[in-house]
Amino acid sequence: MKKALSILSLSLLTSISSMSAMASQADDITVSAPFAREVPPGAPASASFMTLENSSTSAIKLTSADSSVAKVVELHTHTNDNGVMRMRKVPFIEVPASGKTELKPGGLHIMLIGPHNPLKMGQEVTVKLTFEDGSTKSVAMPVKSMKGMMMKHKMPMNNGMHQEEHNHEHMMEHNHQHMH
Ligand SMILES: [Cu+2]
């Protein structure tokens, strides 16, 4: 038993020391298919989506994001609260070792709260990602209209009318949280 434990702690030590010798976490993350959601003038918030792929053998946490296009940028997820989809802030988004995490409508996303200007389809915006080790990655992405995608997303859930209402509710929540 004692021997097994000491072998375990030795291998832990080895993996910790090999971790510190690695390249930055930003270098180990590949971003694909990033885009930001088109929003009309006066909209309280937009969101950014992408797939994060981790080429290293340790989990990597995205701990914050930043953008010049919005006042506040937060990491968010959706939770299903008795059939009502609600957004909430999360402290980090984890990308598993040698795996990927998808930020997509209805799931994890980077919230762009208080856009300085309306985001129009065809524009390009930049979102800076910061990882747990402090390394950063700037991601340039197109602004895309979500109309088609939102419809596809709604279908399996309920009828479209209700979902539409919930989306507005989300926007209101953000407004209350951040405009005080
Ligand atoms: Cu959100």
Topology of this protein?
Layout: H1 2-20, H2 25-28, E1 29-37, E2 45-54, E3 60-66, E4 70-81, E5 84-89, E6 93-95, E7 100-103, E8 109-115, E9 124-131, E10 136-144, H3 147-154, H4 160-178
Parallel strand pairs: 1-10
Antiparallel strand pairs: 1-2, 2-7, 2-8, 3-6, 3-9, 4-5, 4-8, 9-10
The site of copper (II) ion has 5 residues, from strand 8.
Give a summary of the structure in a few sentences.
With 180 residues, the chain is an alpha+beta fold. The chain has four helices and ten strands, in the order H-H-E-E-E-E-E-E-E-E-E-E-H-H.
If you had to describe this structure to a student in words, what would you say it looks like?
By secondary structure, this protein is of the alpha+beta class. It has a single domain (23-178), classed as Immunoglobulin-like (Sandwich), CATH 2.60.40. Helices cover 28% and strands 42% of the residues. The protein has 4 helices and 10 strands, in the order ααββββββββββαα. It has helices at residues 2-20, 25-28, 147-154, 160-178, and strands at residues 29-37, 45-54, 60-66, 70-81, 84-89, 93-95, 100-103, 109-115, 124-131, 136-144. Strands 1, 2, 3, 4, 5, 6, 7, 8, 9 and 10 form a 10-stranded mixed beta sheet that branches. Strand 1 (29-37) and strand 2 form a beta hairpin. The protein is globular and about 40 Å long. The chain starts with a helix and ends with a helix. Mean pLDDT is 81; it is low at 151-180. The structure holds copper (II) ion.
